[in-house]
Structures are given as structure tokens and as C-alpha cells.
Design goal:
The complex is a heterodimer of chains A (about 375) and B (about 280). Chain A is an alpha+beta fold. In chain A, about 25% of the residues lie in helices and about 35% in strands. Chain A has a six-stranded mixed sheet, with helices on both faces. By secondary structure, chain B is an all-alpha fold. Chain B is about 70% helix and about 0% strand. The chains are: A alpha+beta (about 375), B mainly alpha (about 280).
């Protein structure tokens, strides 16, 4: 499968605010591609550029090889599901869904056939006569999906489509969206600030921050191997430690010196050299917590700390553990909760351990990091 | 119960100042005239028979068409302006609205007399038009239907702008994007989504122009001539010149029926069934 929807060095400013900074992305045919980032990161602007509502200041947009940058929204073979659905309040559900075909001038009998097919797809057959203000949020969502899909768009743009729904409904709609995607096989470009949505739906995720694309990858890549501290911090939780490569051990591992820690071993996901300034990042669920010192293993890092806080969260417990200047988040899944050993609690002295392969190093070279040199272990650069 | 209490003051207000006077007008119309300008005793249908006066159909017809044209022009002119205000920067909106309201700071009569000065045979507008050879010197710009119509439009335009603006301002402009997204050209998105979306404002604007235009009396009196009289002038004439109150009341009653009947028919049609493609007043925001 090849590149289908392509953004080529797209920039867009609103007044002084640069919403998109030279963004290049390519979406493959048939995949669910998510733009994930905090509000104001430019993800919605990029979607609006794809829809044709915003003209980029520079850069081009291609759909299936055709330059669509200057094509108005009504002639683009893309359709949008708006954040608040934007259903036409003066039309019934049926009329809303039929709208696109009516505008396209399709004969009435075929419109009826198509609308009924769409109503069945989104399970709304019995609500067709109602007006949008007479149906629930989830139903509006379905109507919006049907209204967009009936035009057989080449790309479906979804602008935070689940944001207005409550948690349970959101989880159900994720599954429904996924099955609709399987059924129609259209390329989805999905904008969300919710990592859970992005993770569970996407084939590819682009993590965006301040108008830039920080990282593009599969959910697994984004989570397990974030390339920037922003990706690591935004997707899931992460503990960060400022460190420096003190020794490179063969091709695979480096030893890091981190204040307050014994030397830490970490897997190299890219070549490192001595003296590199890095952040070491470790996800909370990758850290093991125990009262007793774990058995020595040269690949396992160990450090002693004091429990400052314990938060019981049902399926798991979150611990906050003090180690020197750092407060580490550690999560532990419950299997046989409180059955095997005396549970760890406030004030306990504990051992934390994680495998060298479970940490990852992120480059540290921003200017603000220079100031941090002052806090580095003595004698180092 | 509490709802009923809160609407009580406006209910009393409307009853005293609107319902009772209307009933009185209809009642007086059924009384004989009194030669001294008062209302005679007993009941009669004479006044309604007098409405058969051969002059009336022409005047009623003129009143209707001038009001319809004034309403149509006001709506057509107010719509783009109201749309523009609603879409303009939020800091600019109060300024633009102020510009709509400013004419009200000057007395209504003075504004109409100002038009008289402008359109006077020696007035600025006339002389300009003549000097550009757009108008021959012996054409009168005043005392005709055109002049009355123009001042009607001038007077009621702000009343049309305000309700249309109020509706446009509440309109969710993402709906236009949605329509564009679904294949509409700009114009089609405008009339198939925007116009129905502000239909309530449009109906209000139409009513606040059409109803006072129907009853207008000062404007045709000052700007018009004998060939551009409206019902309002006739009613005034019956009251002040002929001192025939029942006849004036009958004319007023006729006017009321002309205004209210189509509205009742419209409301009944809405109530009984789906009126189809008609842009029906919406359930609100």
C-alpha cells in the first residue's frame, strides 16, 4: 500500500500563532491514522487543511497523487465528522443523511436506497424521522458518521468525534468505529487528544506538539520507543531522570550516571557515545517494587527508596517512591492482592528494579538543558 | 403555578392595552355615526357597507403591495448586513450595531422632513441627479409612491436588521462548513442551511416591517400625494376630518383582519400537519 493522503511541508499561521510548522505526513490507503496531541498542537488545523476549510500558507496536500491544495471543500472527495457533529437542526435524521446525495443530484429512488443502507449500518432505522435535538449524543454521532460515509469519501476526517460522549459510550463507539472501518475500508484521519482512543483505534499515530510532528509510528512504537520526551510524557506515564552516558558497553548497552542512583544500565536504541546528555525514561508499570532486595542480575537496575504515597486504583495500585531528588511513579497490577505478602505501604523502605531493556534514552540538547549541567555529577563535562 | 404568576403582568398589560382596544375598535365599527363626531346608540352594519366605497379597493391594494415590497426590500438588504455583523470580529460588532441604532437618536418626524429637504425640487438630491442628467428637471421626486416606498424602507430597515442579526449571531457557522463538506457550493450552503437556521429571525423581521408598514400614516402623509394614499391616511381622515369614528374603526378592523388572517391560516396549517418544505420556525437554539 502506498501513500494516499500526503501533507508536504504544510505551514499555517493565525496572526502571530504558528499552528503548523512545516508538517509533512503521509497516510496510507485504508488505514486509521491518528493525529494525537494536546489542545493547540495543530492537529485540528491539519485536519481542516485536509478538509479544505483552511488554506495552508505554504506546502501542498495530495490525495491519491492529485494536488488538492486549491480545491474547495465541496469538490474534495473527503468528508468530515465534526466535533459536535454539526447536524442540521432543521432536518430530520433521514434528511441529514440524504443531504450529500441530494446536493450531488442523485435521483430520489437511489437516495432512499442508500439512506436506508446507511441507517442500517449505524443501527438508526427506527430514528429516521426524528430531529437531531430529539436523539441522544451517541445517536447523533451515528447520524454524523452515516451522513459522511454515504458520500463514499476517499478519506473520512474525524475531529475529536468522541469528545462529547461519556466514558462508557465512548468505549462502545470506539468499537463501533473500528467495525465500521472494517466494513467500509475507507481511510480514516482521526484527530484526538485522548491517547486511549488513538491507541485502540489507530494503525499509525502522529504525535503532534506546538505545530510540529514529534513522532509517527504504530501505537506500540509510540508507547514502547518514544523518540522525544514529549511523546514519552504525553503517551502514557513516564519517569524521567537527567543523566549522562558514562560508559558505552559494547553496541547494545550504555551505563548512565544519574544523581542519587547507582550506575544505571540502559539499552541503546541508537548509537550513543560517552558524555551524551540524555533523559532516562522508564514507564511506571515497568518498575517492580518489593520489600526485599531482588536477586542480583547484571541486566537489572536496582535502587532503594521510600514510599511516599499509595493510591489504590482497583485493577492496580500506584506508588510514589522517593529516591534522592526524584519521585518515581510505580504501578503494580493486582493479581492476588494482599494475599502473598504484607502489602507495601506509606513510609516503607522498598527496592525498585527494572530491566535495562525497559528504559529508554531520549536526547537532551535543548538550551534549557544546558542549565541543568550544574546539577550533573561532579567531574563530568 | 409560578410560571403562571410571572407571566401575569405581561398578560394584564396585553389585555388592557391590546385586547380591549381591539375589541373596542370592532365594537365601535358596528355603531352608527353620530353627526357631532361621537358614537351613536344602537348597532348597525352601515359602516361595513360603506367600505364598498369604490376608492377603497385601490387604496387597500396599494397599502398591501407597498408593504410587501418594503418588507421584501428590507429583508433583502438586512440579510447580508446582519450576516456581516454576525461574522465580523467581536470587538467590531457593538460598533456596527451602534451604527444601526444611531438614526433612532433623531426624532422620527425630523428624519422624514430631512428626506423632504433632500428630495425637494430645489434639494440636494434632485439637483445632483439633474446635473448628471439622470433625471429631467420637471420630474418630481416627491409626492408619489416611489418616495413613500423609499422612506418606508429607510425607516424600517433597522428593525429588520436587529432580529436577523440576533438569529445570525446564535447560528452555528460550523453548519455551513458541514454543508460545504457535503458538497454544497457557497450559495447553496447559504440558502439550504443558513436561511432555515435563522428562519425565526427572518419571520420576526418580516413581521416588524410588514405590520407597521401596513398601518403607516405619517410617511405617506408627508412624502406622498393624493395618488399614494395608504389605509392609514384614510383612517386619519375619517377621524380628524370627517369625524366619523365608526367608519374609521371599520377601516381599522379591516386592516386588522388583513394582517391577522394570514397569520392564523399559517399557524393552523403548521398545527395540523407537516407543511413540507416551508421554512418552519424552529424549536429554538
Amino acid at each position: 500500500m502506498e501513500e494516499f493522503l500526503v501533507f508536504d511541508k504544510v505551514s499555517k499561521s493565525f496572526g502571530d500563532v504558528q499552528a503548523l510548522k512545516n508538517v509533512s505526513l503521509s497516510v496510507k490507503k485504508g488505514e486509521i491514522f491518528s493525529l494525537l496531541g494536546p489542545s493547540g498542537c495543530g492537529k485540528t488545523t491539519l485536519l481542516r487543511v485536509a478538509a479544505g476549510f483552511e488554506r495552508p500558507d505554504s506546502g501542498r496536500v495530495y490525495l491519491d497523487g492529485e494536488d488538492i491544495t486549491d480545491i474547495p471543500p465541496n469538490r474534495r472527495k473527503v468528508n468530515t465528522i465534526f466535533q459536535n457533529y454539526a447536524l442540521f437542526p432543521h432536518m430530520s435524521v433521514w434528511e441529514n443523511i440524504a443531504f450529500g446525495l441530494k446536493v450531488a443530484g442523485m435521483p430520489g429512488a437511489r437516495i432512499t436506497e442508500e439512506v436506508n443502507r446507511m441507517l442500517a449500518l449505524v443501527h438508526m432505522e427506527d430514528q429516521a424521522r426524528k430531529k437531531p435535538d430529539q436523539i441522544s449524543g451517541g445517536q447523533k454521532q451515528r447520524v454524523a458518521i452515516a451522513r459522511a460515509l454515504i458520500n463514499k469519501p476517499r478519506v473520512l476526517l474525524l475531529d475529536e468525534p468522541l469528545a462529547a460522549l461519556d466514558l462508557k459510550l465512548r468505549q462502545r463507539m470506539i468499537i463501533e468505529l473500528d467495525s465500521i472501518h472494517d466494513e467500509v475500508g475507507i481511510t480514516f484521519l482521526f484527530v484526538t487528544h485522548d491517547q486511549g482512543e488513538a491507541m485502540s483505534l489507530s494503525d499509525q499515530i502522529a504525535v503532534m506538539n506546538e505545530g510540529n510532528v514529534e513522532q509517527v509510528g504504530t501505537p506500540v512504537q509510540i508507547y514502547e520507543a518514544p523518540v522525544s520526551s514529549f511523546s514519552a510524557a504525553f503517551i502514557g506515564d513516564a519517569n524521567f531522570f537527567e543523566g549522562m552516558v558514562s560508559r558505552v558497553e559494547g553496541a547494545d548497552y550504555s551505563r548512565l550516571s544519574i544523581e542519587g542512583f547507582p550506575e544505571v544500565l540502559c539499552f541503546n536504541d541508537q548509537p550513543r557515545s560517552q558524555g551524551d546528555l540524555v533523559y532516562l525514561s522508564v514507564r511506571p508499570e515497568k518498575v517492580r517494587i518489593s520489600r526485599d532486595r531482588p536477586r542480583d542480575d547484571e541486566r537489572v537496575n536496582m535502587v532503594e527508596g521510600a514510599v511516599e504515597d499509595v493510591i489504590y486504583l482497583g485493577s492496580h495500585t500506584r506508588y510514589w517512591v522517593r529516591v534522592d531528588q526524584y519521585r518515581l511513579a510505580v504501578t503494580r497490577q493486582h493479581q492476588r492482592f494482599q494475599l502473598d505478602e504484607k502489602p507495601v505501604t506509606w513510609g516503607d523502605s522498598v527496592w525498585l528494579s527494572w530491566h535495562a531493556d525497559d528504559g529508554f534514552m531520549l536526547q537532551r540538547y535543548e538550551e534549557k538543558d544546558e542549565d541543568l549541567l550544574a546539577f550533573l555529577p561532579e567531574g563530568e563535562e | 403555578m409560578r410560571e403562571w404568576l410571572t407571566s401575569l403582568p405581561s398578560f394584564i398589560w396585553l389585555t388592557i392595552l391590546f385586547v380591549i382596544p381591539t375589541v373596542l375598535v370592532f365594537a365601535v365599527a358596528l355603531k352608527p355615526a353620530d353627526p357631532f363626531g361621537g358614537v351613536g346608540a344602537g348597532w348597525t352594519l352601515d359602516t361595513f357597507r360603506d367600505l364598498g366605497d369604490p376608492n377603497y379597493p385601490a387604496i387597500v391594494w396599494r397599502t398591501l403591495w407597498m408593504s410587501v415590497v418594503a418588507t421584501a426590500v428590507c429583508l433583502a438588504a438586512a440579510l447580508p448586513f446582519a450576516y456581516y455583523i454576525a461574522r465580523s470580529d467581536e470587538r467590531l460588532r457593538p460598533v456596527l450595531l451602534m451604527a444601526v441604532v444611531i438614526p433612532f437618536w433623531t426624532n422620527f418626524l425630523i428624519r422624514i422632513f430631512a428626506w423632504k429637504v433632500l428630495l425637494h425640487p430645489e434639494g440636494l438630491v434632485k439637483r445632483l441627479l439633474v446635473s448628471f442628467h439622470l433625471v429631467s428637471p420637471d420630474v418630481s421626486l416627491m409626492y408619489n409612491e416611489g418616495a413613500v416606498l423609499m422612506v418606508l424602507i429607510y425607516t424600517y430597515l433597522p428593525f429588520a436588521v436587529l432580529p436577523i442579526y440576533a438569529a445570525s449571531e446564535k447560528f452555528d457557522f460550523r453548519l455551513i462548513e458541514a454543508a460545504r463538506d457535503l458538497g454544497c457550493r457557497k450559495w447553496r450552503a447559504f440558502y439550504s442551511v443558513f436561511l432555515p437556521g435563522i428562519s425565526r429571525g427572518l419571520w420576526t423581521a418580516a413581521l416588524v416591517v410588514f405590520v407597521p408598514a401596513l398601518g403607516s400614516y405619517v410617511i405617506p402623509d408627508i412624502m406622498g400625494g393624493p395618488a399614494s394614499e395608504m389605509i392609514g391616511n384614510k383612517i386619519a381622515q375619517r377621524v380628524f376630518v370627517d369625524r366619523n369614528l365608526p367608519h374609521a374603526s371599520a377601516l381599522s378592523a379591516l386592516l386588522t383582519i388583513v394582517v391577522v388572517l394570514p397569520m392564523i391560516v399559517y399557524l393552523l396549517r403548521r398545527g395540523t400537519g407537516e407543511s413540507g418544505k416551508h421554512p418552519v420556525v424552529e424549536a429554538g437554539p
